[in-house]
Predict the 3D structure of the following.
Amino acid sequence: MTDARFVRTRGAVHAAVCEVLLAEGLGGLTVDRLAAESGISRSTIYRNWPDLADLACEVFDELMHRDEVEFEGAADVALRAYLADYAERLNDRVYLAVLVALVDGSTRDTAFAEVHARAFSPTRSRAGAIVRRGQREGWIDPALDVQGCVEDMVAPFLYRRLVRQVRITNRQVDDLTGDLLHRWHPTS
Amino acid sequence: MTDARFVRTRGAVHAAVCEVLLAEGLGGLTVDRLAAESGISRSTIYRNWPDLADLACEVFDELMHRDEVEFEGAADVALRAYLADYAERLNDRVYLAVLVALVDGSTRDTAFAEVHARAFSPTRSRAGAIVRRGQREGWIDPALDVQGCVEDMVAPFLYRRLVRQVRITNRQVDDLTGDLLHRWHPTS
């Protein structure tokens, strides 16, 4: 397969993964379903993605890193931009469906669990980078644990989307930004 | 079916639901699998639980309210007791598997979503009761939103278990208790 053809095939298969996860969750993810949904032959899918867990993880990796933006500028601007971007991803039905599939798969399958661990590693994440920068620049207490601060950033919205299943509003992005800047401040 | 016989049947079916969710997630939950796992006939399962979503929700409701304890005593004692109890539930593999199934199902199925909404309703939850009591007794700023405080209590551990997939330690229960009492205090 040429590179261009592979890119098209991968695009069709990735789109099919999203469709299936949205409609049926991880339980519906089979090569037969993907072939029917994508129009790509079962043998091509088998050959390129012998493990469907890897395929689902590849899709999640791509969604996570799609349209990445740099978070520069003043502390409040950078933090708010990160939280707004994160809220927008979580508000997306496809992203949420793939995230739920990843959580679901990770409880039983080590392939999922590894992507999972990588995706949420605080030392590699964009959230972790913002916290370390905040500590260097003096707007986050350097005594605070980076992992704990990352959790402060991501846990509330994840809870709202995964558990309460409500959308994140701009107002909530503003409120969390203000709340975190206050809580993390060296003198607070 | 006599009441005693129904209680036994329900116990066997509920245990089978837990087994299946632990091994395969919601995608594996079929009447055939439950019959094979529980030794209860398919027709009995169909008759009593025509909707498997309702059945899964019934199991989750039961796990949520199993061994409920009263949270009395001083503020820090009550809050710590709640968080310790919550951590213990989340650390349980079966509880986690059923919770993940509920999250998974709720993204697609309104039956799940309704149990979900009920289970996490702040006005009915034990966490909400602790917050309202704290506001009456003066150790939680009465200007704080109850829903926001409930989120402060439950989001961090849920994130750790669902997303980071690590166990909650006693140390983390102590730390979160202290952190919340500080953050919520009327003068902070």
